[in-house]
Structure formats: C-alpha cells, structure tokens
C-alpha cells in the first residue's frame, strides 16, 4: 500500500503564556505548571470543589506521591489534569473500576475518584453500586450540577422532575436519583452532601472520606451557570449561591431517604453515614488468602 | 445611639489586619469573593483583565481580617490573603465591628443585594 | 506483589511438571507463571474456567482476583491495575469481548500493557455459548474506535495456550499495548498434556528496571524503540494520563498536530516492528502449489489435510499463523510471489476474516480461496480436502 499522509504543521505545545504565572498563588504548589486557567466557566462550582480538594490535601497532609486521582468524562472529570499528583482521566463512566484496579494492584495508594453526576450514576451507575457494596477503599467525590454540562446541558440521572434541559425541552419526565440515599443503600461507609458554598465542610468531608477505611461518597451540589441554570432561568451563578445560602439546611439527623432534592427546593446537607465495615482488602486477606490451599 | 464598650477580655484578643492579593489575570468575574467576604472588603473594579472580566479590588485598606474565605470560595486560584499586621484590640476596632455587623444584619433582613458602604 | 510465596513458604507461581489440563486452565497457568498479579473478569462460557482457576491460584501467589460486575468494569480495572504496575489479565468470549472494546481503546491510548484472553465462540450476539467460532478475529484488530494497533496470538493447543499467554505479557510490556490471546472454545475446552517447564526455562524479559529521572520527565516521550518507558502510579512522577489526545507530557491537546504525532506513533510502534513480532509455523512450503493458511483449532484440521495430501503426493503446504495481528504480511507477499503457487486456501471458522487479509497481501498474484465454516464444531479433514484438491486444479 502506498501511503500519502497529509501532515498538518503547527505546534503541539500548549500555550505557555500562563506558565510564567505558576506560583503566584500559594496553592499553586498542588497544581501542575502551566495548566490553569482551567476550563470551567465563570461561576462554575467545580472550581470551588476543586479548591476545597486542594485545601484538603494541604490540611490533611496526604502524601502527594501516594495520592492518585482518577476522573471520568465531563466537566468535573477535567479536574484530574490540573493536579500535581498521579492522575488518570479515563473513559466515561469507568473511573471507579479503574480506581478499583489501581487500588487492588497497589493497596498503599490513596485513591480519589473525582467526577460528575452523569458519569458516576448514569453510564457508571452499575460500577458505583458494586464498589460501594464491596467496600473498596476509595473516596468518590461527585459534583452534582443536575445535568451533563460538558456536552451543553442535557438531562441526566439527577435532573429534577419537570426541569428543563436541552434534551428535556418541555420538562424532565423522569424522577431523579437521590444520590446519598443510593450510596447508603449500596453500602457506602461514609456519605455526605454539601453545596459548594459549604467550603470548609466540603474540605473536612474530603479529609474524613480520604482517611476513612472503605468506600466514601461525597456529593457536592454545584451551580452550572452555562447549562442547567440558564435553561431553567435560575439566574446567575451568584444567584444560585445566594439560593444555597438561604435554602440549604443541616439535615444529618434525617435518614437519607428523606433528603431528596426537589426542583428549586431546599437542599438537605450534612454527613449522613459514618460507619465501620471491613474493606474488600481486609476480607481478601483474612477470608481468602488465609485459606488459599496448596494445590 | 451607639451602645458599645470594650469587651471584658479585651487583652486576650488581637486584631489581625490582612492584605488581599488579587491575581487579576486569573479572575473570571464570578463575584463570589465580593459577595461572601464577611467584612465587605471587596468591590468590582472598573478595569477589565485580558479575558474581559472585571476582577475585584479592595474598597479600603485595613478592613481585611485575613480570614481567607475569598481564597476558599474562589474557583480560580485568583485571590488570597496574607497577614499584614497584628495588634491589640482598641476602641475604634469595637466601633467598627459594631458598624459592620449592623450593616450585615440589615442586608440579611432586606434579603438581596448589598447595602451601600 | 508478584510471585510472593504462599503461606507455607513455597513459591507456587510456576507449577513445573506434566499436567493434564484444558486450554482455559493452561491460559491461567501461563498468566500466573508470567507473574500476573491481577485478574478482573466476568464469567462467560467458554472462558469461565480461566477466571475460576485464577480465583484459586492468585491468592496462592500474592495476586488479587476480583470478579467485576460486567466486562466493561473488568477491562477498566485491568487497565487501572496495569497503570499501578501489576501484570494484569482478563478473559472473556465474544459478547464480553464487544463490551471490553471500549477500554481496549483506553489501554491503547494510555499505552497500558495488559493481556486479554478471548476464547472465541459462535456469534453474532449470544450465538453458540458452548460451541466454537473464530469470528472475532477482525474485531480484535478493529474492535475499538479510532486508529491503534494490537498484537494477537492464536494457540492451537493447551500447551500453546500456556506458552503464548506467558509470552503475551512480555510483548505487552515491550510495546506497551494490549495483547490478545485469540483462543477458541475447542482449544479452550480441550484437555491435553501440558508440560510446564522449570523456572529457568521460562525467562521473563525484565520489565524496564531503570527508572527515568523525575525532573522534566515526559511520560509519553518515546525512546529509540518508539515506546515510552513506563512509570507507575505511586512512584512519585505525578504523571497525567488521559484518553484524550495528548502531548508528550500526557496533557490533553486537542489539535490536529498533536493527533498526528500521537496516533502515528501508536500505530507505528507496532507496525514498524511487525517483522519481529510475527511468528508463523510452516509446513511443506518449499514447492507447494496450494498453501493452507490457518490458525487456532482450524489449524489442527489444516495440518491433518496437509499430511494426507503429502501422503498422496500432492504439493500442499501449511502456513499457521501463531501471531494473527499484526498480520504476516511480509511472508504472504513473499509466498505469493513464488513460482508454482496456485492458491492460498484460508481455513477458518467464519465467513471470511483472515481470508481478506491474505487476499489483500496476495495482490492478485495467486487465487485466495476461503474455506469458511459458520461454527459449532471444527471442520473435519474430509470437508477441507476437497476444497484443497479443487484449488490444485
């Protein structure tokens, strides 16, 4: 076969105009040089959750050589590319099984999955319930902005009933998941929900989740000014933040079953589950390896 | 009429004055720092950065208390505070704190927007 | 984690000796002997025995076995484990193979070495769960979207299942690519003698021991072999690996230039070394007028036919593809140009997959005849011989 490939000309390097600014901010040491500004829109809550995670790394003093972040596809999934850690940006819906493989192959790693509601609960739904069931020792941070932001604001598994998105232009006809209820039912040992306004609570929840042995799940409610908020005329990102300020309430005395998030309704936040349960590796060592017989 | 007095344990307290550092080129104009600063230190500036956003600027020096909430709430790593001064509590500090808290109470009661400085 | 001795202080990684086991079990033993430390799979006939044997063996040798919730998760976990530094493997059949394709693409893009065993069965869809097919051959090469290359090996016996699975891990590490073992239900469920040699005879080429310096390290910058040296999570390199098109630092760069550089390299690293990777077995090719091209269980029939033909004085040879992908292009082209050759007869249990490759490489110089069989059993020599005889005329 004769090959006549057309080769484009141009640079492959990312623009370096931001590289000289690396170090301007004290938290830049947790970020990879030259990677910010990140791609998130003005007012997007993912940036705040990301900052809270960086602060959690700082306060919790986690080993940057042993902490690994795995993300999926979507706006939230881009977080992996900005952190100065070993990070993996995997296929849509699969950060959790990927993280499972990483963790079981090298148990000394601390695994964090940073992804969004669609990636983790629609295409990835099967994986999260099984990882929670098995109590794999990973921490899942789920940014819930009630739609698929990256692709323009389509409906997803957490889009509230009657909410508008680009694929539910007349209102969503489906009931959404209550993520913390689902996580608890699947067997997660640590379950919490906060909004991006609860910056310190988010940071501390992340530290607790990462220190917790077993499957930790943290849901973070975030504004999506370009997608969800715009399609539903909820105002600017700042309006949504003021809404969270006035409408979120500490609900950790409630069972997660009663913490659904109605459309334009109040947001129940808090730490809902914090129990102890043997992890997969605990059981693997005590129950399986101990009994592995000679042939 | 203003009711104020020095707190009984005034010697145990220090006033921390912070300095706000704004990295203008990173700002995306979300206004979270302006809105949520507990001491109403920031306002939107009139010049825009190279991306076309209006970064914050400090309204008046000396008001920042180095709480770093702006750093925590900023999605862009575009703002942070450092400590500029640390000194004992003085009467004018108590008067000032009383003024701020009255303003914030008024703002909460009216529900929206910012009370004027 | 690899090869750690079992509790009683004996290393059970390599079960040296003579065994009577089926192809599935031999694949599992080949993996364990190569130091496989992680297996994530899902039960599927006829590959379930691989998983079952791994579930029993991996705890004995310090590895981890996990049965994932589906094949999508299995392949994702295998790629993850590979990125952490473990030799990782999975096994499946047609329907699971289709599901794994998504993350075969991820493995190709992240350049994560792993081994995927496909015990092929009749398809399409649920097909013949308990009966043979060889219908996934093209899918092995083109199954995931986008441009990439894979290495695929096809054993014809349980002994070869052991050997090729063992060697697959080295190939995977050398070229940082997913390597597939395209076995089939007949070989997988056939119980034959398998001799596992002593450890001295099973040399694993050492994984890159010399770790590169951390400063300025570019995880996807190739060395002279076209393959970047691999580093694993937790070693302090703070790499970023993404399925998006990326530059040599691993950062996503969504431009035509980056695509050109990256995808060209991914394809070339295998294509340019095809002649080193390809292995074939040849029988009576010197003056053959018809060459039967086959692989896997069909090659057993082909071998019987060629022997029968020889006894009758017919000039028939056999080319058995041990490496199915990259395709044995050079050899086929060479043979197509030889005097006296009238035709290639491609014997496979599908409606024509490798036959197209043979025809392409023959470039019309000789006839290419497909001896295809839809599946359910291997074809007998009595069914293949008439086709060969006709090709001789």
Helix amount of chain B, in percent? 25-40%
Mean pLDDT of chain B: 85
CATH fold field value of the domain at 12-88 in chain B: Alpha-Beta Plaits
CATH class membership of the domain at 12-88 in chain B = Alpha Beta
CATH superfamily of the largest domain in chain C, by name, is Thiamin diphosphate (ThDP)-binding fold, Pyr/PP domains
Q: Which strand-content bin applies to the residues of chain C?
A: 15-25%
CATH class of the largest domain in chain C: Alpha Beta
How would you sum up the global shape of chain C?
A: globular
What is the CA-atom radius of gyration of chain B, in angstroms?
Answer: 16 Å
Largest sheet of chain B: 2 strands, antiparallel
What is the CATH architecture annotation of the largest domain in chain C? 3-Layer(aba) Sandwich
Give the beta-strand count of chain B. Answer: 4
Look at the helices and sheets of chain B and give the structural class: alpha+beta
Shape of chain B: globular
Number of DSSP strands of chain C?
A: 16
Give the low-pLDDT segments of chain C.
Answer: 1-8
Alpha-beta classification of chain C: alpha/beta
Tally of separate helices of chain B: 3
CATH architecture verdict of the domain at 12-88 in chain B: 2-Layer Sandwich
Kindly report how far apart the N and C termini of chain C lie. Answer: 59 Å
């Amino acid at each position: 076969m004769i090959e006549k490939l057309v080769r484009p000309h141009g640079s492959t390097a990312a623009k370096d105009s931001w590289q000289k600014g690396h170090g301007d901010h004290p938290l830049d040491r947790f970020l990879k040089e030259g990677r910010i500004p990140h791609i998130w829109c003005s007012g997007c809550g993912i940036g705040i959750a990301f900052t809270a995670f960086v602060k959690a790394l700082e306060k919790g003093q986690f080993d940057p050589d042993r902490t690994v972040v795995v993300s999926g596809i979507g706006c939230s999934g881009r977080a992996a590319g900005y952190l100065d850690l070993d990070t993996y940006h995997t296929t849509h819906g699969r950060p959790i099984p990927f993280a499972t493989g990483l963790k079981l192959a090298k148990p000394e790693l601390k695994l964090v999955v940073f992804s969004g509601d669609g990636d983790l609960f629609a295409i990835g739904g099967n994986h999260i319930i099984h990882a929670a069931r098995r109590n794999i020792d990973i921490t899942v941070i789920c940014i819930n902005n009630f739609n698929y932001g990256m692709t323009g604001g389509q409906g997803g598994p957490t889009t509230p009933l009657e909410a508008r998105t680009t694929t539910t232009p007349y209102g969503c006809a489906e009931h959404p998941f209550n993520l913390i209820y689902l996580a608890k039912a699947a067997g997660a040992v640590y379950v919490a929900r906060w909004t991006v306004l609860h910056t310190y609570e988010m940071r501390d929840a992340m530290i607790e989740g990462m220190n917790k042995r077993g499957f930790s799940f943290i849901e973070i409610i975030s504004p999506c000014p370009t997608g969800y908020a715009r399609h539903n005329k909820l105002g600017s990102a700042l309006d949504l933040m003021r809404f969270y300020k006035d409408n979120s309430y500490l609900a950790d005395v409630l069972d997660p079953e009663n913490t659904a998030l109605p459309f334009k309704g109040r947001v129940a936040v808090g730490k809902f589950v914090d129990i102890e349960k043997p992890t997969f590796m605990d059981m693997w060592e005590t129950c399986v390896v101990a009994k592995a017989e000679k042939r | 009429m203003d009711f104020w007095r020095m707190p009984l344990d005034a010697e145990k307290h220090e006033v921390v004055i912070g300095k706000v550092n704004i990295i203008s080129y990173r700002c995306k104009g979300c206004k979270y720092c302006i809105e949520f600063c507990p001491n109403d230190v920031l306002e939107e500036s009139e010049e825009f950065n190279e991306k076309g956003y209006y970064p914050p600027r400090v309204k008046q020096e000396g008001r920042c208390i180095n709480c770093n909430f702006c750093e925590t709430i900023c999605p862009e790593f575009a703002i942070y505070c450092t400590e500029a001064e640390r000194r004992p509590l003085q009467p004018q500090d108590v008067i000032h704190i009383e003024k701020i808290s009255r303003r914030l109470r008024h703002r909460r009661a009216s529900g929206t927007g910012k009370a004027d400085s | 984690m690899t090869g750690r001795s079992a509790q009683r202080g004996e290393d059970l990684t390599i079960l040296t000796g003579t065994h009577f086991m089926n192809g599935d079990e031999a694949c599992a033993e080949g993996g364990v002997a190569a130091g496989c430390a992680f297996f994530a799979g899902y039960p599927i006939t006829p590959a379930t025995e691989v998983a079952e044997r791994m579930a029993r063996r991996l705890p004995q040798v310090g590895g981890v076995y996990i049965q994932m919730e589906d094949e999508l998760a299995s392949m994702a976990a295998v790629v993850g484990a590979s990125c952490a530094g473990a030799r990782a493997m999975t096994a499946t059949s047609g329907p699971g193979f289709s599901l794994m394709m998504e993350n075969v693409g991820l493995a190709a893009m992240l350049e994560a070495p792993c081994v995927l065993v496909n015990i092929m069965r009749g398809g399409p869809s649920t097909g013949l769960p308990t009966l043979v097919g060889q219908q996934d051959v093209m899918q092995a090469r083109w199954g995931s979207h986008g441009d990439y290359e894979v290495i695929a090996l096809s054993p014809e016996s349980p002994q070869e299942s052991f050997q090729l699975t063992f060697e697959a891990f080295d190939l995977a590490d050398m070229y940082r690519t997913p390597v597939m073992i395209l076995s089939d239900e007949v070989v997988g469920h056939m119980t034959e003698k398998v001799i596992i040699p002593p450890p001295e005879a099973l040399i694993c080429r050492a994984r890159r021991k010399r770790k590169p310096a951390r400063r300025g390290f570019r995880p996807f910058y190739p060395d002279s072999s076209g393959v970047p040296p691999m580093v694993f999570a937790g070693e302090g390199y703070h790499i970023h690996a993404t399925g998006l098109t990326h530059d040599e630092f691993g950062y996503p760069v969504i431009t035509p230039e980056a695509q050109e550089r990256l995808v060209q390299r991914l394809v070339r690293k295998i294509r340019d070394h095809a002649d080193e990777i390809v292995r074939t077995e040849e029988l009576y090719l010197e003056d053959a007028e018809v060459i039967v091209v086959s692989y896997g269980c069909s090659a057993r029939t082909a071998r019987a036919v060629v022997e029968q033909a020889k006894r009758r004085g017919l000039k028939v040879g056999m080319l058995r593809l041990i490496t199915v992908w990259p395709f044995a292009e050079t050899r086929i082209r060479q043979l197509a140009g030889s005097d006296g050759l009238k035709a290639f007869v491609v014997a496979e249990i599908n409606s024509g997959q490798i036959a197209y490759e043979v025809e392409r490489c023959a470039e019309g110089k000789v006839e290419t005849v497909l001896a295809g069989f839809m599946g359910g059993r291997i074809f007998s020599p009595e069914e293949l011989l008439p086709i060969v005889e006709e090709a001789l005329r």
